[in-house]
Design a protein that fits this description.
ten-stranded mixed β-sheet; five-stranded antiparallel β-sheet; Pseudouridine synthase; 3 domains; Structural Genomics Hypothetical 15.5 Kd Protein In mrcA-pckA Intergenic Region, Chain A
């Protein structure tokens, strides 16, 4: 059963006898943090009455969890044109343009995607805060998922580790790939005193990228990449290390590509994931941005 601000569960006969906390954690896979927060606020009810977490559930009980929680965030709303690829009561997916920071930092207090999202929420009468499920580098374009409540953020973060959650990118790389498809399994490490740059090093975290060539060009390849892990700069580090650096990547490519493109030619073009409330698989795609299309034409 569904309701905009509530999760509703009818207790089945084979579920009775469990404590409410155990049922929500085990059967409905809610996080301990969400359960505790909702219980403290009195947002968990059984048969329309506030319930304690040690309540023993019975067959045909109606359990409800109110996921609407008053929250604030120190981000100023800013009006901007957002390219919304998908939105409902629980999530919003935005196609981020290149050159935009996702969330405010010391160096970027305004003009971020989060500033635009806060404005968007307020214009629609929603008191959501920005709960990023995925992030992109400033100069990487493409799809970013944001949970609009604590439940959807929890569910998406949990499901990111599952097989039904897929993030795919398109990159334009230097050189012609010898193998048109394969897997890059190389650990990524962040050394001290190297700023934001990452390297391949056995001390690093396990990192896996699947790739396949979509199109061979005169001066490179167009490559599809799907992440099995999500490390910072993963695709950029992996491709550079195996000899196919991304066009325009000033951090991991030694070539000066400024005559072709002014940022790394990397776009998060496709998402596939289960909807946090219904479990139905959503598939969202977006076209390549103009600068990458022009790059491909230039080096074809």
């Amino acid at each position: 059963m569904e309701h905009k601000n509530k999760l509703l569960f009818n207790i089945k006969e084979d579920e009775q006898g469990l404590k409410l906390r155990e049922y929500l954690r085990r059967n409905q896979r809610l996080s301990g943090r969400l359960i505790k927060s909702a219980a403290l606020d009195g947002r968990i009810e059984v048969n329309n009455k506030r319930a304690k977490l040690n309540y023993v559930i019975k067959s045909k009980d109606l359990v409800s969890v109110d996921i609407c929680k008053k929250e604030t965030q120190n981000i100023d709303p800013e009006k901007m044109d957002l390219d919304v690829a998908y939105e409902d009561d629980d999530i919003i997916v935005v196609n981020k343009r290149p050159g935009m920071v996702v969330h405010p930092t010391k160096c970027y207090q305004s003009g971020t995607l989060a500033n635009g999202l806060i404005y968007h929420f307020r214009q629609n009468g929603e008191q959501c805060i920005v709960r990023l499920v995925s992030r992109l580098d400033m100069d990487t374009s493409g799809l970013v998922i944001v949970g609009k409540n604590q439940f959807s953020h929890m569910a998406l973060a949990r499901d990111m580790k599952g097989e039904d959650f897929e993030k795919s990118y398109i990159a334009v790389v230097h050189n012609t790939m010898i193998d048109t498809k394969g897997v890059i399994d190389l650990p990524i490490y962040k050394p001290e005193r190297m700023g934001i740059k990452r390297i391949i090093d056995e001390r690093g975290q396990k990192s896996i990228t699947h790739y396949s060539v979509l199109k061979s060009l005169r001066l490179g390849d167009v490559v599809k990449l799907t992440l099995e892990t999500g490390r910072t700069h993963q695709i950029r580090v992996h491709l550079s290390n195996i000899g196919y650096p991304i066009y325009g990547d000033t951090l991991y490519c030694e070539e000066d590509d400024s005559k072709y493109i002014t940022r790394q030619a990397l776009h998060a073009y496709r998402l596939r994931f289960p909807h946090p409330r219904t479990g139905n698989i959503l598939e969202i795609e977006t076209e390549l941005p103009k600068d990458m299309q022009e790059l491909i034409e230039e080096i074809s």
